[in-house]
Amino acid sequence: MSNHPKTVVITGASSGIGFALAEAYLARGDNVVGNARTQQRLDAAAARLGHPDNFLPVAGDIALPATARAIFERASARFGKVDVLVNNAGIFIAKPVGEYTEDDVENIVNINLKGFFYITQQAAAHMSANRAGHIVSITASLAMQPTAQVPALLPVLIKGGLNHATRGLALELAPHGVKVSAVAPGIIDTPLHGAGTHDFLKTLSPSGEIGQVRDVVDAVLYLTGAAFTSGVVLPVDGGATAGRW
After folding, report:
1. Any residues with CB less than 8 A from the CB of 175 and at least 6 apart, and which?
2. Whose CB among 96, 151, 170, 243 lies 3.0–4.6 Å from 230's, allowing a Cys bridge?
3. How far apart are CA 39 and CA 26, in angstroms?
4. Residue 32 half-sphere exposure, CB side, CA atoms within 13 Å?
């Protein structure tokens, strides 16, 4: 349990890594403000999480500035202030460059780019005013070290931009006491990957292993508790970004 409970905003909180993050922060005694697109999914997540006093669901499309404002307004009204933002909402579309559709482009720009920008803009203003806070984004190690085995231009384009934006924003907000970092997962065992793909996925890491959701959660917990770490993009990928193997 935290001696001083923090208030943590998590986007994409209804499933996968976002849900596991919500569980982890709640288990520490922190307050969690969870966002997902639909109230139905958030209600189902809230029922599984089982901390009604400490979990505030705020539904809405994270690509919209109005959703970002609503999250911070409701979080502040309920818990006083926001200490941590985890930009977890995201989609991953891997295919050869010629096969991307206009819908693919719109979806990935809306969720992965706008869904990062507007809520981070709110967090930067809110946390700078409080002279404290942590912003951590979930990106992708593939954006740090692309591979011909997994053609994925759109994720590399957007997540790679977020990796650089993380460093830029860390410098911009450092004088205001706000720390900005990212976690760049490699292949993580989530329902996103079918069981039949695991043998191939294991070849994408020099360790020959697939990561677990808890590995990503532990990295986020470290960064959001760090007093002297900012501007870092931390790969959680079994060493895949270290070089060729």
Report:
1. none
2. 170
3. 20
4. 30
Q: List the CATH number of the domain containing 73.
A: 3.40.50.720
CA–CA dist 192, 195 (Å, integer) = 10
Predicted TM-score (pTM) of the model is 0.96
Which residue type sits at 219? A
Query: d(Cα 6, Cα 130) in Å, to the nearest integer?
Result: 13
State the virtual CA torsion across 76, 79, 81, 84 in degrees, nearest 10: -110
**CA–CA separation, 10 and 130 (whole Å):** 19
116's tokens: 């990062």
Q: Which tokens in the block code for residue 123? A: 């967090």
Report strand pairing: 233-236 vs 84-87: unpaired
Could you tell me which of 42, 54, 46, 45 has the C-alpha nearest to residue 6?
54
Whether 1 is in a domain gets the answer no
Number of domains in the chain: 1
Query: Is 104 a member of any domain?
Result: yes
2 lies in some domain: no
Provide the domain limits for residue 46: 7-239
Residue in the block written with tokens 């969720």: 111
> Residue 245: inside a domain, yes or no?
no
Q: Dihedral of the CA atoms 232, 162, 14, 26 (nearest 10)?
A: 20
Residue 134 pLDDT greater than 70, yes or no: yes
- For the stretch 142-164, pLDDT in tens is 999 999 999 999 999 999 999 99
